[in-house]
Automatic annotation (TrEMBL):
Belongs to the group II decarboxylase family. This is Aminotransferase class I/II-fold pyridoxal phosphate-dependent enzyme. Gene3D superfamilies: 3.90.1150.170, Type I PLP-dependent aspartate aminotransferase-like (Major domain). PANTHER family: CYSTEINE SULFINIC ACID DECARBOXYLASE, GLUTAMATE DECARBOXYLASE-RELATED. GO terms for molecular function: transaminase activity. It holds the Pfam family Pyridoxal_deC. It comes from Splendidivirga corallicola. The keyword Lyase applies. Its cofactor is pyridoxal 5'-phosphate. Keywords: Aminotransferase, Decarboxylase, Lyase, Pyridoxal phosphate, Transferase.
Length: 483
Protein backbone atom coordinates (compact mmCIF):
# COMPACT_ATOMS: atom_id res chain seq x y z
CA UNK A 1 0.00 0.00 0.00
CA UNK A 2 1.20 3.59 -0.63
CA UNK A 3 2.94 5.34 2.21
CA UNK A 4 0.39 8.18 2.20
CA UNK A 5 -2.53 5.75 2.58
CA UNK A 6 -1.09 4.12 5.68
CA UNK A 7 -0.02 7.50 7.05
CA UNK A 8 -3.61 8.69 6.66
CA UNK A 9 -4.88 5.62 8.53
CA UNK A 10 -2.54 6.35 11.42
CA UNK A 11 -3.38 10.06 11.42
CA UNK A 12 -7.11 9.39 11.60
CA UNK A 13 -6.64 6.91 14.45
CA UNK A 14 -4.52 9.38 16.39
CA UNK A 15 -6.95 12.21 15.78
CA UNK A 16 -9.78 10.14 17.25
CA UNK A 17 -7.49 9.16 20.14
CA UNK A 18 -6.82 12.83 20.80
CA UNK A 19 -10.49 13.80 20.63
CA UNK A 20 -11.60 10.97 22.90
CA UNK A 21 -8.84 11.92 25.36
CA UNK A 22 -9.55 15.66 25.39
CA UNK A 23 -13.26 15.10 26.04
CA UNK A 24 -12.77 12.21 28.50
CA UNK A 25 -14.86 9.97 26.26
CA UNK A 26 -12.55 7.06 27.07
CA UNK A 27 -10.86 6.13 30.38
CA UNK A 28 -7.46 7.68 31.01
CA UNK A 29 -5.90 4.23 31.54
CA UNK A 30 -6.69 0.67 30.45
CA UNK A 31 -4.15 -1.41 32.32
CA UNK A 32 -4.32 -5.17 31.75
CA UNK A 33 -1.81 -8.00 31.94
CA UNK A 34 1.08 -7.91 29.47
CA UNK A 35 0.34 -11.38 28.08
CA UNK A 36 -3.23 -10.29 27.27
CA UNK A 37 -2.00 -7.26 25.35
CA UNK A 38 0.57 -9.25 23.37
CA UNK A 39 -2.10 -11.76 22.41
CA UNK A 40 -4.73 -9.12 21.66
CA UNK A 41 -2.39 -7.25 19.31
CA UNK A 42 -1.45 -10.49 17.55
CA UNK A 43 2.20 -9.49 17.61
CA UNK A 44 3.65 -12.93 16.82
CA UNK A 45 1.57 -13.31 13.67
CA UNK A 46 2.63 -9.93 12.29
CA UNK A 47 6.31 -10.63 12.98
CA UNK A 48 6.07 -14.00 11.22
CA UNK A 49 3.86 -13.10 8.26
CA UNK A 50 3.94 -9.29 7.99
CA UNK A 51 0.95 -7.51 6.45
CA UNK A 52 0.62 -4.58 8.85
CA UNK A 53 -0.92 -2.25 6.28
CA UNK A 54 -4.27 -0.97 4.99
CA UNK A 55 -7.26 -2.52 6.80
CA UNK A 56 -5.09 -4.57 9.15
CA UNK A 57 -3.17 -1.43 10.10
CA UNK A 58 -6.42 0.38 10.91
CA UNK A 59 -7.56 -2.54 13.07
CA UNK A 60 -4.19 -2.74 14.80
CA UNK A 61 -4.09 1.00 15.57
CA UNK A 62 -7.59 1.02 17.04
CA UNK A 63 -6.66 -1.97 19.19
CA UNK A 64 -3.26 -0.61 20.21
CA UNK A 65 -4.58 2.80 21.24
CA UNK A 66 -7.04 1.22 23.67
CA UNK A 67 -3.97 0.33 25.76
CA UNK A 68 -2.26 3.73 25.42
CA UNK A 69 -2.15 6.06 28.42
CA UNK A 70 -4.04 9.26 27.53
CA UNK A 71 -1.85 12.18 28.62
CA UNK A 72 -4.26 14.79 27.22
CA UNK A 73 -7.11 13.37 29.33
CA UNK A 74 -8.43 15.66 32.10
CA UNK A 75 -7.91 12.80 34.57
CA UNK A 76 -4.22 12.42 33.69
CA UNK A 77 -2.38 13.71 36.77
CA UNK A 78 0.41 11.20 36.97
CA UNK A 79 3.91 12.24 35.97
CA UNK A 80 5.89 15.07 34.42
CA UNK A 81 5.28 13.96 30.84
CA UNK A 82 4.04 16.43 28.28
CA UNK A 83 0.55 16.47 26.93
CA UNK A 84 2.25 16.93 23.60
CA UNK A 85 1.33 19.61 21.13
CA UNK A 86 0.22 18.17 17.81
CA UNK A 87 2.79 20.26 15.94
CA UNK A 88 5.59 18.78 18.04
CA UNK A 89 4.36 15.31 17.13
CA UNK A 90 4.58 16.23 13.47
CA UNK A 91 8.10 17.46 14.06
CA UNK A 92 8.96 14.10 15.60
CA UNK A 93 7.45 12.41 12.54
CA UNK A 94 9.59 14.52 10.20
CA UNK A 95 12.70 13.72 12.23
CA UNK A 96 11.95 10.00 12.32
CA UNK A 97 11.27 9.80 8.59
CA UNK A 98 14.32 11.79 7.46
CA UNK A 99 16.47 10.04 10.10
CA UNK A 100 19.14 12.72 9.95
CA UNK A 101 21.39 11.72 12.85
CA UNK A 102 22.80 15.21 13.13
CA UNK A 103 25.46 14.89 15.82
CA UNK A 104 27.81 15.45 12.91
CA UNK A 105 26.74 18.42 10.77
CA UNK A 106 27.02 16.62 7.43
CA UNK A 107 24.45 14.07 8.66
CA UNK A 108 21.71 16.66 8.97
CA UNK A 109 22.58 20.31 8.28
CA UNK A 110 18.97 21.44 8.66
CA UNK A 111 18.38 19.59 11.93
CA UNK A 112 21.74 20.73 13.35
CA UNK A 113 20.98 24.35 12.44
CA UNK A 114 17.59 24.19 14.12
CA UNK A 115 19.11 22.69 17.28
CA UNK A 116 21.80 25.38 17.34
CA UNK A 117 19.08 28.04 17.05
CA UNK A 118 16.87 26.48 19.74
CA UNK A 119 19.78 26.09 22.16
CA UNK A 120 20.49 29.81 21.71
CA UNK A 121 16.83 30.60 22.35
CA UNK A 122 16.99 28.67 25.63
CA UNK A 123 20.28 30.33 26.60
CA UNK A 124 18.70 33.76 26.19
CA UNK A 125 15.83 32.76 28.50
CA UNK A 126 18.36 31.79 31.18
CA UNK A 127 20.18 35.11 30.82
CA UNK A 128 23.31 33.68 29.20
CA UNK A 129 24.96 34.99 26.04
CA UNK A 130 23.91 32.90 23.01
CA UNK A 131 26.55 31.47 20.72
CA UNK A 132 27.44 33.34 17.51
CA UNK A 133 25.95 31.84 14.36
CA UNK A 134 28.79 32.80 12.03
CA UNK A 135 31.91 30.67 12.34
CA UNK A 136 34.22 33.68 12.27
CA UNK A 137 32.46 35.21 15.27
CA UNK A 138 32.81 31.98 17.26
CA UNK A 139 36.56 32.43 17.17
CA UNK A 140 36.44 36.16 17.85
CA UNK A 141 33.98 36.04 20.77
CA UNK A 142 35.38 33.56 23.24
CA UNK A 143 32.89 34.09 26.07
CA UNK A 144 29.40 32.83 25.31
CA UNK A 145 27.05 30.05 26.31
CA UNK A 146 26.50 26.66 24.78
CA UNK A 147 24.32 23.60 24.97
CA UNK A 148 23.09 20.39 23.46
CA UNK A 149 19.77 18.54 23.31
CA UNK A 150 19.88 14.99 24.65
CA UNK A 151 17.53 12.11 25.31
CA UNK A 152 16.36 12.96 28.80
CA UNK A 153 17.17 14.90 31.93
CA UNK A 154 19.12 12.01 33.41
CA UNK A 155 21.60 12.16 30.51
CA UNK A 156 21.74 15.94 30.83
CA UNK A 157 22.50 15.72 34.56
CA UNK A 158 25.14 13.04 33.98
CA UNK A 159 26.79 15.09 31.24
CA UNK A 160 26.81 18.18 33.45
CA UNK A 161 28.61 16.29 36.21
CA UNK A 162 31.08 14.82 33.71
CA UNK A 163 32.08 18.25 32.44
CA UNK A 164 32.18 19.63 36.00
CA UNK A 165 34.60 16.83 36.91
CA UNK A 166 36.71 17.58 33.81
CA UNK A 167 36.88 21.21 34.90
CA UNK A 168 38.16 20.24 38.36
CA UNK A 169 40.29 17.25 37.32
CA UNK A 170 41.39 17.68 33.66
CA UNK A 171 43.59 14.58 33.83
CA UNK A 172 40.63 12.30 34.58
CA UNK A 173 40.36 11.10 30.97
CA UNK A 174 43.87 9.66 31.05
CA UNK A 175 44.35 8.75 34.69
CA UNK A 176 40.80 7.87 35.78
CA UNK A 177 38.60 9.32 38.47
CA UNK A 178 40.43 10.03 41.75
CA UNK A 179 38.95 8.73 44.98
CA UNK A 180 38.67 12.11 46.70
CA UNK A 181 35.78 13.61 44.74
CA UNK A 182 32.32 14.46 46.06
CA UNK A 183 28.99 16.01 45.12
CA UNK A 184 26.96 18.39 47.29
CA UNK A 185 23.20 17.94 46.87
CA UNK A 186 19.94 18.35 48.79
CA UNK A 187 18.04 15.28 49.96
CA UNK A 188 15.28 16.15 47.49
CA UNK A 189 17.54 15.72 44.45
CA UNK A 190 16.35 13.57 41.57
CA UNK A 191 17.53 9.96 41.70
CA UNK A 192 19.51 10.51 38.49
CA UNK A 193 22.13 12.34 40.60
CA UNK A 194 22.84 9.16 42.56
CA UNK A 195 22.92 7.18 39.32
CA UNK A 196 25.41 9.64 37.84
CA UNK A 197 27.64 9.37 40.89
CA UNK A 198 27.65 5.61 40.42
CA UNK A 199 28.28 5.75 36.66
CA UNK A 200 31.22 8.11 37.19
CA UNK A 201 32.82 6.00 39.90
CA UNK A 202 32.33 8.70 42.54
CA UNK A 203 29.78 6.65 44.44
CA UNK A 204 26.60 7.35 46.33
CA UNK A 205 28.48 7.65 49.62
CA UNK A 206 30.39 10.63 48.25
CA UNK A 207 27.18 12.67 47.92
CA UNK A 208 27.08 15.07 50.86
CA UNK A 209 23.52 16.02 51.71
CA UNK A 210 22.59 19.66 52.18
CA UNK A 211 19.95 20.34 54.83
CA UNK A 212 16.55 21.47 53.60
CA UNK A 213 13.67 23.33 55.22
CA UNK A 214 10.14 22.03 55.88
CA UNK A 215 9.28 22.57 52.21
CA UNK A 216 12.27 20.59 50.98
CA UNK A 217 14.22 23.64 49.75
CA UNK A 218 17.92 24.11 50.44
CA UNK A 219 18.70 26.18 53.53
CA UNK A 220 21.43 28.62 52.36
CA UNK A 221 23.01 28.71 55.82
CA UNK A 222 23.47 24.93 55.62
CA UNK A 223 25.69 25.11 52.52
CA UNK A 224 28.90 25.74 54.46
CA UNK A 225 28.27 22.80 56.78
CA UNK A 226 27.91 20.42 53.84
CA UNK A 227 31.09 21.77 52.26
CA UNK A 228 32.94 21.44 55.57
CA UNK A 229 31.88 17.79 55.93
CA UNK A 230 33.23 17.10 52.46
CA UNK A 231 36.52 18.87 53.21
CA UNK A 232 36.93 17.16 56.57
CA UNK A 233 36.67 13.80 54.79
CA UNK A 234 39.37 14.87 52.36
CA UNK A 235 36.92 15.25 49.47
CA UNK A 236 36.74 17.88 46.75
CA UNK A 237 33.25 18.69 45.41
CA UNK A 238 32.99 18.60 41.64
CA UNK A 239 29.61 20.30 41.81
CA UNK A 240 26.74 21.50 43.96
CA UNK A 241 23.25 20.52 42.78
CA UNK A 242 20.21 22.76 43.21
CA UNK A 243 16.60 22.03 42.23
CA UNK A 244 14.35 24.16 40.07
CA UNK A 245 12.04 22.56 40.98
CA UNK A 246 12.15 19.42 43.12
CA UNK A 247 10.55 16.32 41.67
CA UNK A 248 8.48 15.24 44.66
CA UNK A 249 6.65 18.46 45.58
CA UNK A 250 7.80 21.01 42.98
CA UNK A 251 9.63 23.48 45.23
CA UNK A 252 12.39 25.79 43.95
CA UNK A 253 15.69 26.16 45.75
CA UNK A 254 16.92 29.74 46.48
CA UNK A 255 19.25 29.92 43.47
CA UNK A 256 20.43 33.49 44.02
CA UNK A 257 21.94 32.74 47.43
CA UNK A 258 23.22 29.34 46.35
CA UNK A 259 24.87 30.87 43.30
CA UNK A 260 26.64 33.47 45.41
CA UNK A 261 27.95 30.74 47.74
CA UNK A 262 29.27 28.69 44.83
CA UNK A 263 31.00 31.69 43.27
CA UNK A 264 32.65 32.57 46.58
CA UNK A 265 33.90 29.00 47.02
CA UNK A 266 34.72 28.28 43.37
CA UNK A 267 32.26 25.36 43.17
CA UNK A 268 30.48 24.36 39.96
CA UNK A 269 26.74 25.01 40.36
CA UNK A 270 24.45 22.73 38.39
CA UNK A 271 20.75 23.55 38.46
CA UNK A 272 18.45 20.62 37.78
CA UNK A 273 15.64 22.55 36.16
CA UNK A 274 14.35 19.55 34.24
CA UNK A 275 10.77 20.35 35.18
CA UNK A 276 10.65 23.89 36.48
CA UNK A 277 13.05 25.78 34.20
CA UNK A 278 10.15 26.35 31.80
CA UNK A 279 8.90 29.01 34.23
CA UNK A 280 11.59 31.21 32.66
CA UNK A 281 9.12 31.81 29.82
CA UNK A 282 6.56 33.24 32.22
CA UNK A 283 6.61 36.85 33.39
CA UNK A 284 4.54 35.73 36.39
CA UNK A 285 6.78 32.90 37.54
CA UNK A 286 10.32 33.46 36.28
CA UNK A 287 11.16 35.06 39.64
CA UNK A 288 11.19 31.52 41.03
CA UNK A 289 14.51 31.05 39.22
CA UNK A 290 16.09 34.31 40.36
CA UNK A 291 19.84 33.86 40.29
CA UNK A 292 19.85 30.99 37.76
CA UNK A 293 22.26 33.00 35.61
CA UNK A 294 24.90 32.45 38.30
CA UNK A 295 24.87 28.71 37.64
CA UNK A 296 27.48 27.00 35.49
CA UNK A 297 25.06 24.51 33.94
CA UNK A 298 21.33 23.88 33.72
CA UNK A 299 19.17 20.91 32.77
CA UNK A 300 15.88 21.88 31.08
CA UNK A 301 13.43 19.26 29.78
CA UNK A 302 11.33 20.39 26.84
CA UNK A 303 9.34 17.15 27.04
CA UNK A 304 7.70 18.38 30.20
CA UNK A 305 6.19 21.87 30.31
CA UNK A 306 7.22 22.90 26.80
CA UNK A 307 4.78 20.30 25.42
CA UNK A 308 7.42 18.64 23.23
CA UNK A 309 7.30 14.88 22.52
CA UNK A 310 9.71 12.77 24.57
CA UNK A 311 12.57 12.82 24.78
CA UNK A 312 14.03 16.29 24.43
CA UNK A 313 16.19 17.68 27.22
CA UNK A 314 18.63 20.56 27.07
CA UNK A 315 21.95 20.73 28.85
CA UNK A 316 22.95 24.39 28.86
CA UNK A 317 26.20 25.94 30.09
CA UNK A 318 27.18 29.53 30.81
CA UNK A 319 30.59 29.05 29.15
CA UNK A 320 30.58 26.95 25.98
CA UNK A 321 34.26 26.04 26.40
CA UNK A 322 33.47 23.95 29.49
CA UNK A 323 31.13 21.80 27.44
CA UNK A 324 33.30 21.69 24.32
CA UNK A 325 36.36 20.54 26.26
CA UNK A 326 34.63 18.46 28.91
CA UNK A 327 34.30 15.19 27.00
CA UNK A 328 37.37 13.68 25.34
CA UNK A 329 36.66 11.54 22.28
CA UNK A 330 38.70 9.91 19.53
CA UNK A 331 37.40 8.56 16.21
CA UNK A 332 39.38 9.19 13.05
CA UNK A 333 36.29 8.94 10.81
CA UNK A 334 34.57 11.74 12.76
CA UNK A 335 37.17 13.91 14.46
CA UNK A 336 39.63 15.42 11.97
CA UNK A 337 40.49 18.71 10.36
CA UNK A 338 37.75 19.95 8.04
CA UNK A 339 36.29 23.18 6.77
CA UNK A 340 33.92 24.46 9.53
CA UNK A 341 30.71 25.02 7.57
CA UNK A 342 28.32 24.16 10.41
CA UNK A 343 28.59 22.76 13.92
CA UNK A 344 29.19 19.23 15.23
CA UNK A 345 27.25 18.48 18.43
CA UNK A 346 28.89 15.09 18.90
CA UNK A 347 31.71 16.63 20.93
CA UNK A 348 29.16 17.80 23.51
CA UNK A 349 27.35 14.58 24.35
CA UNK A 350 27.93 11.05 25.54
CA UNK A 351 25.60 9.92 22.74
CA UNK A 352 27.10 9.05 19.36
CA UNK A 353 24.09 8.70 17.08
CA UNK A 354 21.77 11.58 17.90
CA UNK A 355 18.34 12.36 16.47
CA UNK A 356 17.24 15.86 15.54
CA UNK A 357 15.60 16.67 18.85
CA UNK A 358 15.51 20.36 18.05
CA UNK A 359 13.11 19.76 15.17
CA UNK A 360 10.21 18.66 17.37
CA UNK A 361 10.99 21.41 19.91
CA UNK A 362 10.98 24.01 17.14
CA UNK A 363 7.72 22.71 15.64
CA UNK A 364 6.04 22.95 19.05
CA UNK A 365 7.14 26.48 19.91
CA UNK A 366 6.77 27.76 16.35
CA UNK A 367 3.16 26.59 16.14
CA UNK A 368 2.07 28.46 19.26
CA UNK A 369 4.65 31.15 19.88
CA UNK A 370 6.27 32.00 23.20
CA UNK A 371 3.27 33.82 24.68
CA UNK A 372 0.84 30.93 24.28
CA UNK A 373 3.32 28.43 25.72
CA UNK A 374 3.85 30.78 28.67
CA UNK A 375 0.07 31.06 29.11
CA UNK A 376 -0.19 27.28 29.25
CA UNK A 377 2.50 27.16 31.97
CA UNK A 378 0.79 29.94 33.93
CA UNK A 379 -2.51 28.09 33.69
CA UNK A 380 -1.11 24.84 35.06
CA UNK A 381 0.69 26.63 37.92
CA UNK A 382 -2.50 28.56 38.74
CA UNK A 383 -4.55 25.34 38.82
CA UNK A 384 -2.16 23.81 41.35
CA UNK A 385 -2.68 26.80 43.64
CA UNK A 386 -6.45 26.67 43.17
CA UNK A 387 -6.54 22.97 44.06
CA UNK A 388 -4.28 23.58 47.06
CA UNK A 389 -6.63 26.17 48.53
CA UNK A 390 -9.54 23.83 47.96
CA UNK A 391 -7.81 20.82 49.55
CA UNK A 392 -6.66 22.58 52.72
CA UNK A 393 -10.27 23.52 53.43
CA UNK A 394 -11.21 19.83 53.62
CA UNK A 395 -11.07 18.40 57.14
CA UNK A 396 -10.03 14.92 56.02
CA UNK A 397 -7.19 15.97 53.71
CA UNK A 398 -3.77 17.52 54.27
CA UNK A 399 -1.09 19.12 52.06
CA UNK A 400 2.55 19.20 53.14
CA UNK A 401 3.57 22.21 51.05
CA UNK A 402 1.93 25.12 49.24
CA UNK A 403 2.77 24.54 45.54
CA UNK A 404 5.24 26.70 43.65
CA UNK A 405 4.79 24.85 40.37
CA UNK A 406 2.17 22.57 38.82
CA UNK A 407 2.84 19.76 41.31
CA UNK A 408 0.61 19.23 44.35
CA UNK A 409 0.83 16.57 47.04
CA UNK A 410 -1.89 15.68 49.52
CA UNK A 411 -3.05 12.72 51.59
CA UNK A 412 -6.11 11.33 53.28
CA UNK A 413 -5.85 11.19 57.04
CA UNK A 414 -4.45 7.79 57.93
CA UNK A 415 -1.52 5.52 57.26
CA UNK A 416 0.88 5.32 54.35
CA UNK A 417 -0.69 1.97 53.53
CA UNK A 418 -4.06 3.66 53.11
CA UNK A 419 -2.62 6.10 50.55
CA UNK A 420 -1.18 3.20 48.57
CA UNK A 421 -4.43 1.22 48.65
CA UNK A 422 -6.34 4.25 47.40
CA UNK A 423 -3.80 4.79 44.63
CA UNK A 424 -3.84 1.13 43.62
CA UNK A 425 -7.64 1.13 43.36
CA UNK A 426 -7.64 4.27 41.20
CA UNK A 427 -5.00 2.82 38.89
CA UNK A 428 -6.77 -0.52 38.62
CA UNK A 429 -10.10 0.99 37.62
CA UNK A 430 -8.44 3.51 35.26
CA UNK A 431 -10.64 6.40 36.33
CA UNK A 432 -7.71 8.66 37.25
CA UNK A 433 -3.98 8.46 36.73
CA UNK A 434 -1.84 9.92 39.51
CA UNK A 435 1.36 9.06 41.34
CA UNK A 436 2.56 8.85 44.94
CA UNK A 437 5.72 10.07 46.62
CA UNK A 438 7.50 10.03 49.95
CA UNK A 439 8.10 13.45 51.49
CA UNK A 440 9.41 14.14 54.96
CA UNK A 441 8.83 10.54 55.98
CA UNK A 442 5.21 10.29 54.79
CA UNK A 443 3.50 8.85 51.70
CA UNK A 444 1.45 11.36 49.70
CA UNK A 445 -0.80 11.18 46.68
CA UNK A 446 0.79 13.35 44.00
CA UNK A 447 -0.88 15.35 41.25
CA UNK A 448 1.01 16.83 38.29
CA UNK A 449 -1.15 19.16 36.19
CA UNK A 450 0.06 18.58 32.63
CA UNK A 451 -3.11 18.22 30.56
CA UNK A 452 -4.48 21.57 29.37
CA UNK A 453 -7.99 20.13 29.81
CA UNK A 454 -7.85 19.46 33.56
CA UNK A 455 -9.99 21.76 35.74
CA UNK A 456 -10.88 22.07 39.42
CA UNK A 457 -14.07 20.10 38.66
CA UNK A 458 -11.97 17.09 37.66
CA UNK A 459 -10.11 17.28 40.97
CA UNK A 460 -13.38 17.50 42.89
CA UNK A 461 -14.47 14.30 41.13
CA UNK A 462 -11.15 12.70 42.08
CA UNK A 463 -11.54 13.59 45.75
CA UNK A 464 -15.10 12.32 45.77
CA UNK A 465 -13.86 9.00 44.38
CA UNK A 466 -11.01 8.91 46.90
CA UNK A 467 -13.52 9.32 49.72
CA UNK A 468 -15.63 6.49 48.34
CA UNK A 469 -12.58 4.22 48.19
CA UNK A 470 -11.60 5.29 51.68
CA UNK A 471 -14.95 4.11 52.99
CA UNK A 472 -14.63 0.86 51.08
CA UNK A 473 -11.30 0.02 52.68
CA UNK A 474 -12.49 1.01 56.15
CA UNK A 475 -11.50 3.54 58.83
CA UNK A 476 -12.77 6.44 56.71
CA UNK A 477 -12.79 9.89 58.28
CA UNK A 478 -16.17 11.64 58.39
CA UNK A 479 -16.09 14.77 56.28
CA UNK A 480 -18.58 17.07 54.56
CA UNK A 481 -19.40 16.32 50.94
CA UNK A 482 -18.31 18.52 48.11
CA UNK A 483 -20.63 21.15 46.76
Amino acid sequence: MPFTTDANIITQALDKFRSDSNTAKSPVLNQVAIDEIIQSLDLASYIQHGGLTDGKLAEFMNNYLTYALRLHHPAYLGHQCAATHEAGSLGAFVDAFTNNVMAVYEMGPGAASIEYFMVNWLLEKVGWLPAPVKQSERYEKRSFGGGVLVNGGSIANLTALIIARSKLVPEVWEEGSPSNLSILAPSESHYSIQKAAGFMGIGKNAIYTIDVDQNGAIIPKALQAALDRSKNDGKRPIALIANACSTAVGIYDPLDEIGAFCQENNIWLHVDGAHGASALLSSKHKHLLKGVEKADSLTWDAHKLLRTPSLCAALLVRDHSDLDSGIHQEASYLFHDKEPIGFDFIQRTIECTKSGLGVKLFFTIAAEGEEKIAAYIDGRYALAKEVYHFVIEQSDLECPVAPESNILCFRVQGSDEKQMRIWDKLMTEGSFHLSTTMFMGKRFLRLVFMSPHTTITDIQRLINRIREINKEIGNAVESPGLS
